[in-house]
């Protein structure tokens, strides 16, 4: 069972099942929300996500259509997103928020059409 928390520790959670899908999302919304080239998420049924503390501190943002992103209102850590039309009963958890070791068998890169142009540069290139 995996556990996780936000940066300040106010929000904590545990997963009751092993995530089924892991992806590096390169969409511009994930780039902006994380301030990074991509965000890595692990998906599982919503019923298998249990908040242990701080659920009342989560702030929701409707980023597009039915998609709702949740983050800690104290420290700003991204925790989850849900609302996929294809998988309405699933939630995607930010892997970087896990406190336990998570070593997925595979990670899929998605939305590569908006991949950061500087991501593939090797050291020393300008």
From TrEMBL:
Query: Keyword Membrane on this protein?
Result: no
**Record's superkingdom?**
Bacteria
| Alphabetically ordered keywords of this record | Lyase, Metal-binding, Zinc
According to the entry, every stretch annotated as the CENP-V/GFA domain falls at: 2-113
Can you say what this protein is called? GFA family protein
Pfam families tied to this protein? GFA (PF04828)
**Family, as annotated:** Belongs to the Gfa family.
PROSITE patterns per UniProt = CENP_V_GFA
